[in-house]
Amino acid sequence: MMSSSLTVQGICLTVLALLFIYTLWLMRSGRLNAHVTVRWILAEGAAFLAVLLWQWLPLFGITSTMGDRELLMVLAVVFFALVAFLMLDSLARISTHTHQIKLLTQEVALLREHVESGSQNRREGA
Predict the structure, then answer these.
(1) What's the pLDDT band for 1 if we cut at 50, 70, 90?
(2) Given phi > 0 = left and psi -120 to 50 = alpha, else beta, which region is 30?
(3) Which residues contact 64 (CB under 8 A, 6 or more apart)?
(4) I need a surface site. Which of 39, 40, 86, 126 has the fewest CB within 10 A?
């Protein structure tokens, strides 16, 4: 029983380590924003610690008395909440950037119009 638990723990730690390396690679290649990278690394670090210390976490003491279905439901809800938080945070940043891009586009259009009307006035005056 104990060896299968260590095997599962080893597999989980390996998957988390690969995810951590992939996250860092995405940031270094410029495909992932530093703000988002920090959040993902914190979440991955928390998951890594949870897997390492799973025997001593109070959540697992409570869930050991649950049946398999209830435990899977708890884990699914926790996982969904984490992913939803990270996605909503990213979407909020994207929305902010979209609004800023819209304002900048309007400013560029106004500046272009101002420059064109200034050059038009110079031609007419000459």
Answers:
(1) very low
(2) left
(3) none
(4) 126
